[in-house]
Amino acid sequence: MFKTPILFFGILALALMSIQPVFAETERIEMRVDGMTCPFCVYGIEKKLKGVAGIEDASANLKTGIVDITVNNGNEVDVDKLKKAVEESGFTPGEIKVTATGSVTEYRGYAALKVAGSEQVFRLVGKREHGKEESLSKEKMDEIRAATKNGAELITVTGHIHAHSDYPPALSVDSFTIK
User: Fold this and answer.
1) What is the pTM of this model?
2) Which CATH number applies to 26-178?
């Protein structure tokens, strides 16, 4: 008598547990770190970055000078905290490259990426050089809007970021794909 509903809800529960979220949040952060010369340097920088709030993991490559950083789900990327952790470790922070998925929106009149699953917002810019950045060209913004059906579809953007005191971090649009 109760076997059919129990079986149905059991199968439904298993199906729901296997569903993956449709967003990927901040997928990857690569940070160049200058000054690493030995395995102890790698250990020190990894340990310091793992201690930054919201950072799940950090893996440094001595040969390339690149640190791959994983952010905990739902957390924001704080560029200043990442740079400070590197400096406190005795190294020099360099470029930070991010791959993030979200929806195209507007922030204070600028095109922005609202990262799925968090409160993170990146202001989208056309050039990666701090101080020489420019807003996205009308053509590039039109291309992004058309590709995302005016923000209805998720977009994955890869680019370099840098912090601003009065705005969210700027993210150059080096490339993008639609999810």
Assistant:
1) 0.76
2) 3.30.70.100
